[in-house]
Design a protein that fits this description.
The chain is an alpha/beta fold. It is globular, with a radius of gyration of 21 Å. The longest helix has 29 residues, at 282-310. It has helices spanning 12-27, 51-62, 84-94, 107-114, 130-144, 162-171, 191-199, 211-214, 234-240, 248-251, 282-310, 337-342, 397-401; strands at 40-45, 66-70, 97-102, 119-124, 151-155, 178-182, 204-208, 220-223, 259-261, 350-352, 373-378, 383-386, 392-394. Helix content is 34%, strand content 15%. Strands 7-6-5-8-9 form a 5-stranded parallel β-sheet, with helices on one face. Strands 2-1-3-4 form a 4-stranded parallel β-sheet, with helices on both faces. It contains 13 helices and 13 strands. The chain starts with 11 loop residues before the first helix and ends with a helix. Helix 1 (12-27) crosses helix 11, helix 2 (51-62) crosses helix 11 and helix 3 packs across helix 4 (107-114). Phosphoric acid mono(formamide)ester binds at residues 49-52, 123, 132, 263-265. Phosphoric acid mono(formamide)ester is lined by residues 49-52, 123, 132, 263-265.
Length: 402
């Protein structure tokens, strides 16, 4: 069953198709008003959300379907200790598609393995938020009309900002991209993303702590909130939170068509005085979230229907394996679990219950029944990654056997 766990699960062609569908939905909403008649979406939100949950629900309702679900863990049987897998199995009896947000990294992946309907990751801890990335891509495309040859600035919390990580991964697949990474030293982009994605794809990038120096070069400025909830030290958070505040004064040196994006919610990193500037796209971006989620629901339900009819999973075609489908282990060495399941080319050497993931945010830290599974990412370095949260682990099998 096709799910969406990581943005890399979608090929470039599929991204383009989703954007084209969203554009068509925007232009012809009535055409889609009954597309999901008699279908149900379950929104399982174990963590707070405004945009993601309600735009999913609005999307399904506008497609003629209906919605069930919960908006906090305490109103579900998770509060009584029910596992993510059991929840997903049961909800599959009640709904045709699931959107799940969970504080533990890898929880939607666990759900996708257990469910018999498609599962969409609506954000898992600091790990992935693929439908935000789809929203960002649709907004960039609608504002700038292209994905290639853009200079994109990412500003703020580049360490914990999962939307930044996913958007960099997605944009790295297009030609002529240039990234400007603007953050305090303490919140720099994690080195594995620089190494495994940006450098691997040969993308030109610069790192800076100063937004004024580079704002005039940018086609897109992607602002982010300093993620207070992911800091272990409150003092450190308070010290960094006011570092970048975008104001109309700072926008004076920006290009006349630079687009300012922000996944929202904002705290104070974009002044409300900027909201009337035509370059401020973040509210249009939130609206785009509904359209791209409509396109995604249509795609995954159509694929599930096809699978039911044919009695077998949809197999990735040549296009997905393995250069195009970067989520495949043959592509970038981390990412897609869908690739792992159905990409026939994937070697997929794994360690099962040999080592444990030491990431306290990993779903394996709370769900003891899960197997500890690591997938070989780099044989030369003996580097493995947890299949749930992608945390690195080094393990030399030969040295252990001696
Ligand atoms: N951008 C985003 O994920 O917003 P919510 O947390 O409100 O869903």
């Amino acid at each position: 069953m096709r799910s969406l766990i990581d943005i890399s699960d979608l090929s470039v062609r599929e991204l383009d198709e989703l954007i084209a569908t969203a554009d068509d939905i925007i232009a012809n909403p009535d055409k889609y008003a009954e597309s999901c008649k008699r279908k149900k979406l379950a929104t399982l939100f174990f963590e707070p959300s405004t945009r993601t949950r309600l735009s999913f629900e609005a999307a399904m309702l506008e497609l003629g379907g209906s919605v069930i679900g919960f908006s906090e863990a305490n109103s579900s049987s998770a509060a009584k200790g029910e596992s993510v897998a059991d929840t997903a199995k049961v909800i599959s009896f009640y709904a045709d598609i699931i959107a799940m947000r969970h504080p533990k990294e890898g929880a939607p992946y666990v759900a996708s393995k257990a469910a018999t309907v498609p599962v969409i990751n609506a954000g898992d801890g600091g790990h992935c938020h693929p439908t935000q990335t789809l929203t960002d891509l649709l907004t960039i495309h609608r504002e700038q009309g292209r994905f290639d040859n853009l200079t994109v600035g990412f500003c703020g919390d580049l360490k914990y900002g999962r939307t930044v990580h996913s958007l960099i991964t997605a944009l790295s697949r297009y030609e002529g991209m240039k990234f400007v990474l603007i953050s305090p030293e303490e919140l720099k982009l994690p080195s594995y993303i620089k190494k495994d994605v940006v450098k691997k794809k040969g993308i030109e990038y610069v790192q800076t702590t100063d937004i004024e120096d580079c704002i005039g070069d940018l086609d897109i400025l992607y602002m982010t909130r300093i993620q207070g909830e992911r800091f272990s030290s409150r003092d450190e958070f308070l010290r960094l939170r006011d570092r970048y505040i975008l104001t109309p004064e700072k926008m004076v040196s920006a290009k006349p068509d630079m687009a300012v994006l922000h996944p929202l919610p904002r705290v104070n990193e974009i002044s409300v005085r900027l909201d009337d500037d035509p370059r401020a796209c973040y509210l249009r971006q939130a609206l785009n979230g509904k359209y791209i989620r409509k396109a995604l629901i249509l795609k995954l339900l159509a694929e599930a229907e096809e699978e039911k009819k044919n009695g077998k999973p949809r197999i990735h075609n040549e296009e997905h394996c393995c250069d195009e489908h970067t989520g495949c282990i043959m592509g970038n060495g981390f990412g897609s679990r869908i690739g792992e399941e159905i990409c026939r080319e994937t070697p997929g050497e794994k360690l099962v219950n040999v080592i444990k993931c030491d990431n306290p945010a990993c779903i394996t830290s709370t769900e003891q029944e899960l197997d500890d599974i690591f997938r070989l990412a780099d044989p030369e370095q003996h580097l493995y990654r947890c299949v749930y949260c992608e945390k690195k682990a080094f393990y030399d099998k030969d040295a252990e056997q001696k």
